[in-house]
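QA checklist item 7 of 12: single-chain prediction sanity check.
[x] sequence parsed
[x] length recorded as 161
[x] structure emitted
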Amino acid sequence: MKNILPLFFLFISRLTIAQVNKVMPSEANTFYQNAMVTIKPGIKNIIEKNANKLTRRKVNVDSLIKELHKNPLLRDGNDKDLEAITVLILVQVSGNADNDLKDLVIHMDHSKSGKKNEEENENCKNTAALIVENKSEIAQSVSVIMKKLSGSAEMAMDKFK
């Protein structure tokens, strides 16, 4: 624990330019927690597969919704239903990004010196900056979708229970 704390502060101090500008709306996290418990396993599988596919990648919400339209389990869903599923996918992607950031911080090695170690740590920092930027964009997209759904997200999920 003693070794991790200085690493954490060093990591934070170097990434001050890559701060998350948008925070995931608390309604989205609550919606995710409630929905993942009650939805059908097939829908949950779709959410997890898409989230894993989008981890560490830029997310285009329109492309994601178009792809969801093609899925046989979701063909009967209207736009609100697919937007609700998209929110769940994006919240999962954000959670995956949090886990990636934790892994990067844990695996950064500041105990060794040398050019190779410095290059590895610099790569970790660049990767972390990209992840943080992506998390910010995801949070902004989720915020926009949640405003559009405004309370109908839970009703949209009734079809998938």
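[x] summary fact logged: Residues 115-149 form the longest helix (35 residues).
[ ] second reviewer sign-off
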